[in-house]
Amino acid sequence: NAGVTQTPKFRVLKTGQSMTLLCAQDMNHEYMYWYRQDPGMGLRLIHYSVGEGTTAKGEVPDGYNVSRLKKQNFLLGLESAAPSQTSVYFCASGEGYEQYFGPGTRLTVT
Amino acid sequence: TQLLEQSPQFLSIQEGENLTVYCNSSSVFSSLQWYRQEPGEGPVLLVTVVTGGEVKKLKRLTFQFGDARKDSSLHITAAQPGDTGLYLCAGPNSGGSNYKLTFGKGTLLTVNP
Q1: I want to staple A17 with a disulfide (CB 3.0 to 4.6 A). Which of A13, A24, B23, B34 is the partner?
Q2: Size of interface A-B (CB pairs under 8 A)
Q3: Quick one: pLDDT band at residue B94, thresholds 50, 70, 90?
Q4: For B44-83, what is each residue's pLDDT tens digit?
Q5: Which of B31, B92, B106 has the CB atom closest to A42's CB atom?
Q6: Nearest chain A residue (CA) to B9
Q7: Has residue B98 got a pLDDT over 70?
């Protein structure tokens, strides 16, 4: 039982490049979330999903898109990366208010 | 907007000392959670407190939910280097939909051997 996994663990992008972060969970949770964590800012919700085929905007959605084609996977896309998107990205899943987090992806945009 | 303020922001202590960190809000929460995040890892849920005045113990960690459900505290007895990490409190967003959480900015605890 792996819980929540994220790939890749590290990535460096140039401004304007695109990429997709993959999150997978094996706990059959309906709810999945993408957060970013920045020094002094705490965890901020980017997008979330309440079930397969659904997505919704969180607190800081601009510049990101998401998809949830399968219940166990939640993808976060950056279409045109900007230096302001340098951050650590966490995926989480849950049922109810208890959330289970992945190990994170450290993204640097130069 | 519901905010959770955590204090202190940073805490550095010696092994064996006791400590308390706080999570405060002007809003009432139906429950509060505490997470611990070790360097390079994601947050891990430690406990959920639900009832005003509730006290929960997890080995050397004691969690308390305020009577008015606006605040919570985490007390660690005889801290160990393995307790080092970022301690986050979180509570359900008002409106209660979609199980979204509001997180505090955390207390970064360092326990020196």
Answers
A1: A13
A2: 50
A3: confident
A4: 999 999 999 999 999 999 999 999 999 999 999 999 999 9
A5: B106
A6: A40
A7: no
Position A95 scores a pLDDT of: 86
CB-CB under 8 Å, B44 with A98: no
Q: DSSP readout, chain B?
A: ----EEE-SEEEEETT--EEEEEE-SS--S-EEEEEE-TTS--EEEEEE-STT-EEEETTEEEEE-TTSSEEEEEESS--GGG-EEEEEEEEPTT--TT-EEE---EEEEEE-
Which residues on chain B are in Cβ contact (under 8 Å) with A43?
Answer: 43, 88, 103
Q: What does the block give as tokens for A65? A: 């898109």
Interface of A with B (CB under 8 A): 4, 31, 33, 40-43, 45, 48, 50, 56, 58, 90, 92, 94, 96-104
In this complex, is the C-beta atom of B95 within 8 Å of any C-beta atom belonging to chain A?
Answer: no
Residues with Cβ within 8 Å of residue B17, at least 6 apart in sequence: B78, B79, B111
Structure-block tokens of residue B75:
């007390």
